[in-house]
Amino acid sequence: MSLLPDTVRQVDALVAGAQSAGRTPSLLVGVVRDGVLTHLATAGEHPRPDADLQYRLGSISKTMTATLVMQERDAGRLALDDPLEKHLPGTGVGTLTLRQLLGHASGLRREPDGQWWERAEGADLATLLAGVSAEKIAYPAHRAYHYSNLAYGLLGGVLERITGTPWADLLRQRVLEPLGMRRTTYAATEPFARGYVVHPWHDTLREEPRTDTGAMAPAGQLWSTAEDLARWAAFLADPVPEVLAAGTLTEMCVPVSISDPDSWTGGHGLGLELYRQGERVYVGHGGSMPGYVAALAVHRPSRTGVIGFANSYGFRTGGLGGLALRTLTTVLDAEPALPRPWRPAATAPPTEVDEVGGRWWWMGAPLDLTWDAVTGELVAHVRGERVSRFAPEGPDRWRGRSGPENGEILSVLRDRSGRAVALDIATFVFSRTPDQEP
């Protein structure tokens, strides 16, 4: 679905203004809707951007590392609350859990030992682990949000130890190939944009090194294109079950830590950054490596996302990430997603379901129970404000699958004649009329 001409003009103006003000040689921002890259706004000529030009992803790589961890969790080969010691013994930080590392809630310091890893050639896993001691813990877990690149180097090591496969090979086999992301690679592959530092006084360019970060690769090594990153944005909006279950991705979007507790505008789930913009919450991640910045933000309810690349590290401050969020908000404000069309049910509900449909009451508050013929679920509407869905789990027993009653049990209570007379939802008993006592 193409954007409307006025929306295109707004997005193009945002990108052109950002490229000029940010003094970046090459800038692109793409809008993704319903799984398709619907518009690509570009600015700059060094080089001229297009959908197949590679830039460096930086820390967006972490979202894919986290996906691999969740695959292993779903397969039963690890638990999120496993201590690191279980998979990488002897590090000195072994009490930290995989969940804490994924959500930047571990208190682990930001970087590994040695030179600034983003500009230096990386070491192997054994060398990385040899430099990890108890001194790498800045403060106790969950005391505060503290972003840690080192955490993702360690998570990559966990994946390698469990699977016996190097992180890059595992990622290619499990994520990139199934999603058709053929231009997302470990090292730069032509055509790619060179990355620069723009001199602050006379606008000349200094090309930055393109390092192999070794064991820290799971934190920020990858290269990709607008076309491929759009595929990843589409996956975060609506995952391919062969790669990751929808429920697992939803779990990754639940906050583990809040990055700004005074304003609550940002946080981190299991490998995904969370951005609150007014009444909307976006998920995604930013990325930076010497000479490059990248951005990814997705509004999952509307299946709309924005991706972005620039080839100047100086564009980072208040730059590409903010531009991506402004662009996404602009698109959603201008073109809100249409509701899915209503369609009549092909069949009537089963007798036992039909019997419990309709209005129920608790303490003068109404609850309307309907049936979703597509999913086979009961849908509970409380005052039209709270909606919970229940999946069948046995005779007269339904388990909450979403909404406020997620995980709770709805039981149908019957009289001696077998007539349904009440509903018990997590011990709250609803009757057929407001005059009845449960």
Automatic annotation (TrEMBL):
Endpoints of the signal sequence: none
Domain DUF7586 stretches: 350-432
Segments forming a coiled coil: none
Gene3D superfamilies: DD-peptidase/beta-lactamase superfamily
Pfam families linked: Beta-lactamase (PF00144), DUF7586 (PF24491)
InterPro entries reported for this sequence: AmpC-like (IPR050491), Beta-lactam-related (IPR001466), Beta-lactam/transpept-like (IPR012338), DUF7586 (IPR056008)
Domain of life where this protein originates: Bacteria
Location of the Beta-lactamase-related domain: 11-314
Matching PANTHER family: D-ALANYL-D-ALANINE CARBOXYPEPTIDASE (PTHR46825:SF7), D-ALANYL-D-ALANINE-CARBOXYPEPTIDASE/ENDOPEPTIDASE AMPH (PTHR46825)
Name of the protein: CubicO group peptidase, beta-lactamase class C family
Species lineage: Bacteria, Bacillati, Actinomycetota, Actinomycetes, Micromonosporales
